Structures are given as structure tokens and as C-alpha cells.
Amino acid sequence: MEFESINSNTTAKLPILKLENGNSWVSVPQTAQKNGTSVMKMSVPVTAEEKTNKKNDVKARSLLLMALPNEHQLTFSQYLDAKTMFVAIET
Hints:
- The protein is an alpha+beta fold.
- It has 2 domains: about 15-45, no CATH class; about 45-90, no CATH class.
- The protein contains 3 helices and 4 strands, in the order E-E-E-E-H-H-H.
């Protein structure tokens, strides 16, 4: 029995990185189309303080969502940070 070898080329889209101020590698802002307009997206925190703040905000947002009853979670999951979510829950 003979086996045929099939050469398949697969490509993976890797993030584009650049060195910023010798600090750390950050991803290059990417543009996305939203409602017909071009929007720049930069979601990666650069400094250690920004990373810590983002991590704490994600934890706080998750805790707030877990504290809500199931029927209200979808309503409040639209808020992207914990402060605005907490204000909306209070009102």
C-alpha cells in the first residue's frame, strides 16, 4: 500500500508587534469597520500599572455580573467597565 503525501500550506494570522520606548512589545493598532466608519482599536495595556488596572477591572466586572440574578445578567453585560456597570445597577 502506497501513501501519497499531500503538501498543504496553512497560514496563521499573527499579531503585528513593535517595540515601544524600549519598554515592552505592543500590538500595532488595527482598524475595523463599524457602521461604515473606520475605527482604530488598541486593546493591549502597555505598562505594568495599566495591566494591573485592567486585571482588577475585569475581576470587579465579573463579580458584579455573578452577583446579579440570571434574568438581569444580559442587561448589564453591555457595560465595558465596572464603574459604569455599578452605577447602572445602583439606579
